[in-house]
Each structure stands twice: as C-alpha cells, then as structure tokens.
C-alpha cells in the first residue's frame, strides 16, 4: 500500500505514518506500542487537518496525508491477515475506478458494496468483534468500538482512498459524495417501506429489523466519511 501511494503525495510523510507497522513487522515493537502510536498518529493528523480547515487557510505541508490516508495504517494493524489482500485490492479498485469515464456512479456502487468485501452481511453475527481488542491490554470501550467499526468499513475506506489518490480537483469528489449519500438514503427508504409492508411478517425481527439497523448504520457512516473528505 505504501508503494501504491502516488509520488505527488510526498512519500516521506506516508513513510512516517507506516513506520510503526514496519517496525512491528520486523519484530522491533510490541502490538500495544504499535497500536498506540498508530492511533495517536491518526488522531493528531485529523486534528491538524480540522484546525487547518477551521483556519480557512493552508498552513500544513502540501504532502501532508489526508484524513482518509491517515486511517490506512490503523486499518492494516487491526485487520486479520487473511483480509489484508482484500484491502490492497480495494485500494487498487478505487484507483482504477477514478480513471473511468464519469466514475462517480461506478465508484458509488463500489463503495455501497464494499461493506461485503471482507465478509460483512446484514446480520450481527458477521460483525468481527475480536479485532476491537487488537493492541489493547485492557478493555477500553471507545477504542474497541472504534476499531470494530473501522474494520467493518475498511474496504470502503480503501476504495475511497484509492479514488481520491487519482483525483486532483474537488468537483468529482463532491459529486461522488452526493451520489453516495443519495444511494444510501434511497436504500434506507426502500428498507423502511419493506419493513412497514411486512410489519406483521413472521420473520420481521430476524430478517427485516437487522437489515434496517445496518442500512441506518451505513447511512450514518457514509455521512461521517463524506464530511471528512468534502
């Protein structure tokens, strides 16, 4: 993933963000230390980006990673090893979609389906709980919840990151965000209608209710992600 990042993004900044994972891979750090540094880097980078946007002027270096790029090391550190190739392919998918003609529609479709790339589904049983405890020596509910959510939507973030790495203007990004939110909203509306129509169905709590819960979560996560990249 580090070598896939385009040169114009100043690989030196990305090297620093990936450095904890590199040290961990060669056995020079513990999982707890690696996760702590990766999380601190993510939070610090997001705060700096937010401060720059609030100041309404650019004062960070041009090659400073975006908020989405800063999440990549954390995603790789908490993901199961067998899903790492899926994350890399998701990133490549986003890069290739950005090169298509009128890529917003295709990319919005890929983003809507990305939740299922790593085995996610419309059942609570498909949510991987174990990854939430990666790099922790004791239970911390906020970190556990955040890592579970990030792992569930990791392919989605990688597809979006690959797409953004190939886009140099803001107009396609804005169009993608709008279309992605609209698709998720329409999907939620359809789920609500089916839930209303089949409200007396025998499996309303085992089939329709979980789907409604996931669609609501998808829309909420989509709004959060698009807010970060808008």
UniProtKB/TrEMBL annotation:
Q: Which GO terms describe its molecular function?
A: CP2 mannose-ethanolamine phosphotransferase activity
Biological processes annotated in GO: GPI anchor biosynthetic process
Q: What is this protein called?
A: GPI ethanolamine phosphate transferase 2 C-terminal domain-containing protein
Cellular component aspect of the GO annotation: endoplasmic reticulum membrane
Matching entries from InterPro entries are given as: PIGG/GPI7 (IPR039527), PIGG/GPI7_C (IPR045687)
- The GPI ethanolamine phosphate transferase 2 C-terminal domain is annotated at 67-229
């Amino acid at each position: 993933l580090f070598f896939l990042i385009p040169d114009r993004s100043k690989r030196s900044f990305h090297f620093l963000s990936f450095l904890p994972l590199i040290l961990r891979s060669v056995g020079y750090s513990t999982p707890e230390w690696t996760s702590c540094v990766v999380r601190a880097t993510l939070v610090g980078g997001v705060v700096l980006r937010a401060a720059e946007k609030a100041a309404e002027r650019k004062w960070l270096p041009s090659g400073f990673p975006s908020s989405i790029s800063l999440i990549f090391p954390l995603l790789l550190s908490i993901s199961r090893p067998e899903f790492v190739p899926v994350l890399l392919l998701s990133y490549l998918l986003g890069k290739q979609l950005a090169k298509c003609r009128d890529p917003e529609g295709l990319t919005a479709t890929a983003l809507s389906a990305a939740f299922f790339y790593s085995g996610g589904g419309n059942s609570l049983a498909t949510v991987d709980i174990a990854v939430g405890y990666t790099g922790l020596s004791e239970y911390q509910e906020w970190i556990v919840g955040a890592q579970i959510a990030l792992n569930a939507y990791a392919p989605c973030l990688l597809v979006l990151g690959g797409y953004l790495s190939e886009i140099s203007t803001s107009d396609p990004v804005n169009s993608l965000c709008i279309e992605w939110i609209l698709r998720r909203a329409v999907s939620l509306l359809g789920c609500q209608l089916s839930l209303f129509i089949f409200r007396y169905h025998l499996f309303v709590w085992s089939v329709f209710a979980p789907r409604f819960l996931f669609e609501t979560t998808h829309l909420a996560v989509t709004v959060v992600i698009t807010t970060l990249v808008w």
